[in-house]
Design goal:
20-stranded mixed β-sheet, 35 strands, globular, about 550 residues, single chain, mainly beta
């Protein structure tokens, strides 16, 4: 009896399992069921949009494939089109991947895409047409990218209707006029880029009341007015949210006042190449989050920066004060709170001593101390500091002494002095001594207008990446080494105003990209080898 009951229970359990499995199979969506097809009205809108465009490259098959027989009528599978998984509505149109391959105009058929939240037409060619006003009716847009698309004319005020926009990028076009006051309605905006246009006027004060704004990039326009005047108002919430402020290459005026410290979240401050003058407040040193500080190309005459200007800049990594008439005066034992990667101080007043504070910088990549009034020798510790430097420019000073001759190791463990930069410019100084061993990674080498002497054979150690060698106006002697054959990228060779002798090496005939060469004012003899006549791009010889 027990066995029978047990057998019945087993049969019932087996039937229950089979029943549930059948239900699962019946309810499991097939591939055809999960395939979401876009709405017919939106499909037709995209086809109309396609008709208003053309392929700049006839061999390109990007949007030309839209509506082909292979898509089974589903526009969600078209290149650059994205649809909602739940509704099938088109929510994304991204033609950035078609870069440079689309031209024409923008059809108002896009208005049928009422759920479109992401539109990117960047780096295509719309033939100088204005930005269509109807774009302001795509109310669901949160991301709008029209960068480098050859648009011209004013920015349509209707874009201010896009109150859900998070990112608006209209950079690198030929847009004219002023920034629309209607942008005050972009209450969700986090990133605004209008750089590299032809905009004029000022920055609307209402823009500073967008509390969500994190990044404002207006670089390379004709904008003007008091650059930091908005900070005088205490009610502007942008002062707490703004992380990037890029206003370089405009016509802004004014100074850098105490109120600069209100921008407590600022990470990037770029005010270069404007018409700034007056003072730079020490309160700039309170911007503890800042990583990039750029003030080049302004007129801060007789302004002296001290340690107080940098007191809390512990996150500073990029520092550019070039061509700004600034003087930097620090105590010789000052240790900065920052570790810089990029240091551009061209034409600032650093000298006459070589700046000692640079010794504390462990990871500089680019150093430009050109025309800074240094009349000292380069301390030996500098070559240890600079072993990671990619770009080194100490030109147009009165630097004396010689260069270290040991550049054989890039090891952190060994204490070799070494010139390791790929781009080296030590021209127009008073350096002397023989030509040192040069880094094999050199791309440009300019040691002109110094007092170096001896042989130049060490140039043969330079790799085939070299594009410029300028050793002119020195005291070099001996013959020109015959080691040019592998320098296929060399465009400029200047050995003028030395005491070189012998003949011009035959291997120079292999320099197919050579544009300029000068041997003027040496003691060379013999005739130019016939192979030099085969140089295709040869433009100047002296």
């Amino acid at each position: 009896m027990l066995i029978t009951m047990s057998g019945q229970k087993y049969s019932i359990d087996l039937l229950l399992v089979l029943f549930l499995a059948l239900v699962f199979l019946l309810e499991k969506p097939t591939e055809a069921n999960v395939l979401i097809r876009c709405k017919e009205s939106e499909r037709q809108a995209l086809l109309d949009f396609k008709q208003s465009l053309a392929a700049a490259n006839e061999s390109y098959t990007g949007i030309s494939s839209w509506g082909s027989e292979d898509d089974n009528g589903d526009c969600c599978t078209w290149l650059g089109v994205g649809c909602s998984d739940s509704t099938g509505h088109v929510v994304k149109l991204d033609l950035l991947d078609l870069i440079g391959n689309v031209t024409g105009t923008i059809s108002p058929s896009l208005l049928e895409l009422r759920y479109l939240s992401y539109l990117d037409l960047s780096f295509n060619d719309f033939n100088g047409c204005p930005i269509p006003e109807f774009i302001g009716s795509l109310r669901e847009l949160t991301y709008l990218f029209f960068s480098g698309s050859q648009f011209s004319g004013p920015i349509p005020f209707q874009l201010g209707n896009l109150s859900s926009l998070v990112t608006l990028d209209l950079s690198s076009n030929q847009l004219t006029g002023s920034i629309p006051e209607s942008f005050r309605n972009l209450v969700a905006l986090r990133e605004l880029s209008l750089k590299a246009n032809l905009l004029d006027g000022g920055i609307p004060k209402s823009l500073w009341n967008i509390c969500s704004l994190h990044s404002l990039n207006l670089r390379s326009n004709n904008l003007g007015g008091d650059v930091i005047g908005f900070l005088q108002s205490t009610s502007l919430c942008t002062t707490y949210s703004l992380e990037e402020l890029e206003l370089s290459e405009n016509q802004f005026t004014g100074s850098v006042p105490n109120e600069i410290a209100k921008l407590s979240s600022l990470q990037v401050l770029s005010l270069g190449y404007n018409r700034l003058n007056g003072t730079i407040s020490q309160d700039i040193g309170q911007l503890s989050n800042i990583s990039t500080l750029e003030l080049p190309g302004n007129s801060f005459d007789e302004v002296v920066l001290s340690e107080a200007h940098f007191s809390n800049l512990s996150n500073l990594r990029r520092f550019d004060l070039s061509d700004s008439s600034l003087a930097l005066k620090f105590n010789s034992d000052w240790i900065p709170p920052f570790q810089l990667h990029v240091i551009y101080l061209r034409s600032c007043k650093l000298g006459p001593r070589f700046p000692q504070w640079i010794r504390s910088q462990d990871m500089p990549r680019e150093i430009d101390f050109s025309a800074t009034g240094i009349s000292d020798s380069i301390p030996s510790w500098f070559w240890n500091t600079s072993f990671l430097v990619h770009n080194l420019n100490l030109s147009f000073n009165q630097i004396s002494g010689s260069l270290p001759d040991n550049c054989t190791s890039f090891s952190y463990a060994e204490n070799h002095y070494c010139i390791c930069a790929s781009f080296i410019d030590l021209s127009s100084n008073n350096l002397t001594g023989p030509l040192p061993q040069l880094p094999s990674s050199s791309v440009t080498l300019n040691l002109s207008k110094n007092k170096f002497f001896g042989s130049i054979t060490s140039i043969c150690e330079i790799s085939n990446l070299i594009s410029l060698i300028d050793l002119s106006n020195n005291l070099f002697s001996g013959v020109i080494p015959n080691c040019f054959a592998r320098w296929n990228l060399l465009t400029t060779l200047n050995l003028a105003e030395n005491n070189l002798s012998g003949s011009i090496p035959r291997s120079m005939g292999s320099l197919r990209n050579l544009r300029m060469v000068s041997f003027r004012s040496n003691s060379l003899s013999g005739r130019l080898h016939s192979s030099l006549g085969t140089l295709t791009f040869f433009m100047f010889i002296s």
